Every structure is written in structure tokens, then in C-alpha cells.
């Protein structure tokens, strides 16, 4: 097959907010499929078979047919390379563990071979890499060449793991999304903002902005934690802090063997040795603990028989609990301990080295603890146990077996008390007990540690038992049920009067007592103070307002060009204003050559209005009027002429309108005039009408709106109009 049959990627744009394709971030690629324009899939012999063989997951793609197998039906009947590439890229992202499903492909012009293709991605780097790999894979299938899919999926999966949110943070963000709370990732790591402006809350994996540094400091000081817990009646094991092996053995004798030896400042169970009976064991365990911790201080404490459990407390509630297990191997008379561990423990499909594995594979970093355990049994890693001989490898290994429903109410109460004593809003409480369904006092159980920033994965993906939606509990802890984390946002788009209207809306909100952020063609303002743009794009400038904890309401002007190149800066708005659909010159380079196509761009502003929100639309522009049907919320029409068809019909339907009558502006509901305000001579009437309608939509009173009109400075020093 000639190389004329190729797919060339002409332009790639990451649209970071709501856009002409969808209300979520997408990558838009402009494609030239060249000669392939003459070869739909049904004219490319064997393509269907090769593509479905290498990507069997394509069968669940619904495509335009709207049902399971829809895309394969299109592929069999004949569809074009741009559309096929869209589905290949989506499937590669799915195989890499980043689930996505939305894609669209549209031809630019007729018989040109040029297409715009958009696909959903949760992370730009992954999306771009999947696009490049997808193009290579599709061309290999078209040209009947081999393609190493396994290597591609490994590369993409590695990229997902390195640049996407970790599973614990992602679970919290997903729970926020279910509650329609917006989120913004603040770093390349797991620091995330939930909500906007003054209503935001921040999380860092399992820490929140309510997690105090003092509480974290107490939790990292195991000795202090124990003394505080004991003073509040929480059962803890007796113990001593020591700084030498000799002192460790002395402490063990004072406490009474068996004992536990662990680092004073360790975590994740590293350097912990259990059930120690002899001086030799204690001395070796001290050396291990001192090496694994950040200081030479080591804790010696009474050994408590039983299994280790991790109880997750969020706020004042126990949310989840997981139990540990002891790891044993059984000898066969031939294999040494290393071989038995690999054959009997590491072959468990639940074990691995990635975050997706609920259980850890035993690896060299666990070696010191395992060697000590074996030495106490008179063995080494190279010993060959007899046939049938059971050998303990690791007491209390992974704490990853769900036991939430078994926890006794008194144990749950002790765990929540422990979290409060330390001062943590989210805590992992380590409990040792023979039976978690009985009170601790009954069985000599105890709380041995309180952990800040606990891992959530054991509860999200337990090795056995029911997964727990801990993200939902954390979001419910941060936001009351009637809170959405949203501040009032007004979005405005159009060519004529949009900037002036946005400034007037911001002023009305400001005099209502709110700290207001304004992003418009005149600049970036917070409560009227101009901030430097510092080279930020329009989208980035808008996002700065969403990040600002002082901002209580936001007004965002978006041009058609911004929607096409970056998307809107916010996900949803309370009020969306469209002034007009006119002038395609600014966006001609995007193949937007008609007002109908411009309508398709500017409608984005109406698509993102919340169901509880309001669209403010210019009744004098027929295409703007047509957008009313797209709005999930209420519509207010405005216009200079009260006899405009849209205003007349709206009044007949008993709905709200704003119009000019003689020298005044009338706010009316149906045929009832709600208020009449004087017309400002300094501001174009359409801009005033749009701003008044938006203020009314936001619940501002006519009296306050009138005061705003009288005090608005239409010509400050820095304006473009």
C-alpha cells in the first residue's frame, strides 16, 4: 500500500475546560487522512479482522449507533480513518487504566480529507501519547504490519501511574464529582482543591486542610501518642523508649517477654519485630529498628497476641477496617525458603509491586525482618524445610482483608476516641486484637499506633471482603449535604457589549457585599483591583480566580477564540449570558466560516449552566434566542424593544424579561412589572440590559441594582472600549 494512504496530525490542542465538544477536558486533533479519504474501512481488506483481534475491547464501544457493538457495526459497514483513530485512542487509554469513553470526529468541508477529532482524556500527557501511539497502531493495521501492543500499553500505563492522581486521591475526587463538587488539581502530585474560591477545601491524599501540623507531630511521636491515649483510658501496650541494645533488653525484662521492638519514628511497619523472647532476638531487632528509623530511638513494648488491624476514622466515625494475616510457607523437602516464598506467596495474583495490588509481593526490602523471623526459628533463607513443615515468614503481613462489619461498637468507639485525642480529622488506628468483634479489654487487645495520612488502598481494594467508599466519607466530612463547594459564577460571551456587561455585573455583585473576581478583555480584577496577567492565557487567568480563597463570586468573559483554543475556565455556572452571534473573522482559522458554526461555539456558554441556574439571552438576535432550548435552567430574555417576538412570547408564558421602555429599564415577570430603573446614559443600553438581567438572575434586588447603575464607573482608566 502506498504511503499516500497515511494519517497526518496537523494540530493538537488540549481544551482544559468545557468546549464545543463536551463539558469536560478533551484533546482536539486536526487530521489529514490523505488518500484514505477514498478508502473507508470496508474498502481496506482485512482491517476489521486485524483491528478487532488486536483491540478486542472495541466491541463495547457504542459509537453513534448507541449500543454495545455500535462502533464495530460502523467499522464493518464502512467508516473513515479519523473516526477509527478516535476509537483506537480511547481504547489505548482504557487499556492503560485511564477509563474514558467520549469521542467525536467531524469532517472539515467536503471531500477534503481534513477532520477535527476530539477525545476525552483525564491527563494531557497521557492523551497526547495515546494519540501518537494510536496513529501508529492504526497505520500498522491498515498496512498489515506487526505492532507491539503490549509494549505500548506498558509505556502508557507507566505514564498514567507517574502523572495521574494516585488511587486514594482519585477515589476522593470521584466521590466529589458524584456530588457535583468541582475539583482542580493544584500540583503534579496529589494536592487537590475541591470547590471554588472562598468555598473550596483542599485535600492531599488522606489529609485535609483540617489536618493540623500539631496532630501530625503528635502522631509521629509514638511515645507521646501512647501516653496521651493512656491518659484518656485508651488501652495501649506498656513500653519504653531506649537508645541502645543493652537498654532494649533491660526494658524487655522489665516489661516481661514476649516484646515488640520497633523504630520510634518508623512507618508502614518497617523495622518492626514481634514476639521476641530472648536477648539475642531483642539485640538483633534493636539493630534493625535503629537502622530503619530516622533516629536511634527505639520502642520496646509488650507483645499483644492477636492480629493487626487498621481502622480508618473520618471525622467522628469509623468508616472502614481491615485485618492483617500471617504469612507461612509449607516445606516440600526440596525447596529452600526463597523458592517456597516465590512459589507459595508471590504467585498469588493479588500480590504485586504496584498500587493496584491489594497485597505486596515479598521483596528484598522485607528481607531484614524475614531473616530475623527465620533466625528465631533456627533457619536462614537458604534452609530447606522438611516435607509438610510450616515456617512463619511474616507475622501480620498486609493489613488488607476487610472486616468493617465485624468491628465491635466499643472497639469503634475506642478508635474514634484515639483519633480525637491525637487531634486528627482522618486517622488510621492500628489495633491488635485476637477478635475484632469483641471489646479490647475482654481480650487484652490494644491500640498500638495512630497514623496521620493513612493509606486508603486496603479499604478501596481489599484482598478479600467488600470495598469501602472511603472517598465518599471524606467528601461528606468536608462538605455538608447542602454544600456544593460552588460560588456564584457568571459566564458571558459574545462580541458586542460583553466586556462592559461583565464589568457592570461584577460591580453589582461587589456592592451586594461579595468579594468579586472578574476576568474580561479589560484584564483580571479582584474587587476592582487590577492584577497583573503575568503572561497567563485567558484560561489560566480565569482559573486564578477559582483558586483565590478570597473570591466569593466570579464573572468570566469568554471569547469564541478562547472556547475554541482552551475551553471555559470553570465547569458550570449559575448564570450564562450570550450577547450576540456575529463576526466570524476572529475564528476563521478554525474553519468557523458561518454564523451557524459560530452558534455551535457560543452555545457552550449555555450548555454549562447549572439546572438551578439562568440563561440571560439577547432577544434581538435570532440565533441567541434559539439557545434558550439548550438551557437546563431558567431563561431571562432582554432587549431594547419590548415588542421583540421572544420577549412577547416569554411574557405570555409568565417568565422573566428585561427591556427598555422610553427612558427607563423595566424588569417584568409575565405581564407584571417588577421594577423600573433609570437608563444610564454612559453605558450602551444592551450591555446595561444584559447586566441587569444577570443581577436579577443572581437574586439581587432592584433597589441594589439601581444603586449599582448610579455608582458604576463606565470609563475607568484601563478599558478597551
TrEMBL record:
GO MF term (any one): cyanophycin synthetase activity (L-aspartate-adding)
Family annotation (SUPFAM superfamilies): Glutathione synthetase ATP-binding domain-like (SSF56059), MurD-like peptide ligases, catalytic domain (SSF53623)
UniProt entry keywords in alphabetical sequence: ATP-binding, Ligase, Nucleotide-binding
PROSITE patterns per UniProt: ATP_GRASP (PS50975)
Ranges where the ATP-grasp domain occurs: 226-479
Pfam family for this entry, one: Cyanophycin_syn
E.C. number: 6.3.2.29, 6.3.2.30
InterPro entries named in the record: ATP-grasp, ATP_grasp_subdomain_1, CPAse_ATP-bd, Cya_phycin_syn, Cyanophycin_syn_N, Mur-like_cat_sf
Domain of life according to the entry: Bacteria
Enzyme class of the recorded protein, top EC level: ligase
Listed name of the protein: Cyanophycin synthetase
The species this protein was found in: Rugamonas aquatica
Recorded name of the encoding gene: cphA
